[in-house]
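Propose amino acids for all 161 sites.
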């Protein structure tokens, strides 16, 4: 497509893009208490707030899952008769960030209770995957929607009493 301009370029792009696809796989990460976000009180931002420190290690189980996923995807594109294949190796940006404000009964090991209320603030609620102690390979969108409806009912009851 180098050197193409105007309508000729637009037509060439339409023809090429209509024959392209992206396909990807996922792998489960097992819960690991060492994968966490903590605060570094020795390093502060411009407002004086402690900076986050992210600790993440990808275990052999996850690496093997990604390897097997890539191998299966290779067989799929071969069966389709693909002529130009570009592979992205390793972990890519399909990660689901979860667990940084986990739900639990104990304020020492969790941020919110079962009603999503912060342990240390009676009028602060957190909703989202951050409250999950772990998450699978599929985005928990429907679970979060159900939690939002449940929280709405809880707040409605509190406000009406």
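Proposal:
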């Amino acid at each position: 497509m180098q050197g193409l301009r105007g309508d000729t370029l637009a037509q060439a792009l339409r023809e090429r893009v209509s024959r392209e696809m992206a396909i990807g796989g996922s792998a489960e990460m097992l819960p690991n208490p060492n994968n966490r976000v903590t605060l570094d009180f020795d390093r502060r931002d411009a407002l004086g707030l402690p900076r986050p420190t992210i600790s993440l290690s990808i275990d052999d189980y996850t690496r093997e899952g990604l390897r097997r996923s890539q191998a299966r995807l290779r067989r799929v594109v071969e069966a389709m008769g693909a002529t130009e294949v570009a592979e992205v190796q390793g972990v890519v940006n399909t990660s689901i960030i979860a667990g940084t404000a986990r739900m639990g009964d104990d304020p020492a090991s969790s941020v919110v209770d079962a009603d999503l209320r912060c342990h240390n603030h009676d009028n602060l609620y957190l909703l989202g995957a951050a409250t999950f102690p772990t998450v699978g390979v599929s985005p928990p969108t429907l679970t979060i929607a159900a939690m939002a409806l449940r929280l709405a009912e809880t707040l409605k009851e509190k406000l009406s009493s």
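Residues 41 and 48 are 9 Å apart (CA to CA). Helices lie at 6-17, 60-79, 141-160.
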